[in-house]
UniProtKB/TrEMBL annotation:
InterPro entries reported for this sequence: DNA-bd_HTH_TetR-type_CS, Homeodomain-like_sf, HTH-type_TetR-like_transc_reg, HTH_TetR, Tet_transcr_reg_TetR-rel_C_sf, TetR_C
Protein name: TetR family transcriptional regulator
DNA-binding region range list: 40-59
Annotated keywords: DNA-binding, Transcription, Transcription regulation
Species per Swiss-Prot/TrEMBL record: Kribbella caucasensis
Keyword set includes Transcription: yes
An annotated Gene Ontology molecular function: DNA-binding transcription factor activity
SUPFAM superfamilies (alphabetical): Homeodomain-like, Tetracyclin repressor-like, C-terminal domain
Domain HTH tetR-type: 17-77
Source domain of life: Bacteria
Amino acid sequence: MTDTAETTPRQRPRVEGDREEQILEATVDVVADLGYDRLTMDAVATAAKASKATLYRRWSTKADLVVDAISRAKGCPVPEAVDTGSLRGDLIALSCDEGGFTDKLPMSVMAGLLTALHRDPDLQRAFQELFLAPRIAVTNRIYERAVERGEIAAGVDVALLSTTLPAVIIHHAFILGVEPTEDLILRVIDNVILPAARGSQAS
């Protein structure tokens, strides 16, 4: 008879009390300060005032630790679902509130991961599933409601439109070095997103 205890992968033990949350917060800070490539378990252990053995008992690799941290830590919250009654209002609330593009810590974490994402398939997959997916779900719901309200013209490529704002902001932030301010976000919404949603071009 097969011993199920041997065939079922064991769940790694959680760190007791508030220590796990403290370690995750410290990891986010180290990623933001040093970037993924320079992050080490030693650096996180020092920042969290924990032993490296404690980290390895819970997370087998730094990729496991970093992805867990950015998906769960308070410093990188998933933006809350918003419903202001208009596409413009929803996009402003999503982009400019906590966890949005004007929130420095999530953007710093993103910058710290960029160099590794394209060459680390495990990190990329986990980042997409745990960090991006819940944020994309919130954005998709905003555009779905806009379609239901008639704010988006028939024939508009909604899937492409929904990625345009983050694409422009990320390009400005990480390629051009332009800070993602509320003014920049409003310019993109008013001059690109809304005209495209109406099926027209900005004049």
